[in-house]
Design goal:
alpha+beta, two-stranded antiparallel ribbon
């Protein structure tokens, strides 16, 4: 995904960066799936920005893509606990206001990042 000037000399160019986790991805098919997944997530976020959406909307869209992709340890691809259960965490931070929303140890939800955003925007709590 590329960057693009916003046309306003007082603002920075737009860019989006997505990473698929902090582990050594094995060569081969898993590496190919991971690369394709982060590219798809970056494109989803980029599409939101190109359509005039906010950075928060773009970040959420990118993370939802990762959560929906079983190649990643998020959402659909979550690693199970020792007890064989899914427990997911998510946090979303608004860099402009420093507001944030977070969830911890949630299950039975497809996209914990969207729930974290709801906590931030629709409650008096941050977690």
């Amino acid at each position: 995904v590329s960057t693009q000037s916003t046309g306003n000399p007082l603002t920075q160019s737009m860019a989006i960066v997505v990473h698929g986790g902090a582990w050594r991805i094995p060569d081969g098919e898993m590496s190919n799936r991971s690369l394709a997944g982060v590219q798809k997530a970056a494109q989803a976020g980029w599409d939101v920005l190109q359509a005039g959406g906010s950075a928060m909307d773009a970040a959420e869209a990118a993370v939802v893509c990762l959560e929906d992709d079983p190649s990643f340890d998020a959402g659909n691809g979550s690693v199970l606990t020792e007890e064989g259960k899914v427990e997911m965490d998510a946090i979303l931070v608004d860099g402009a206001t420093l507001e944030f929303g977070a969830v911890a140890c949630v299950n039975n939800i497809a996209n914990p990042i969207s729930l974290a955003r709801r906590v931030m925007e629709n409650s008096d709590h941050c977690m």
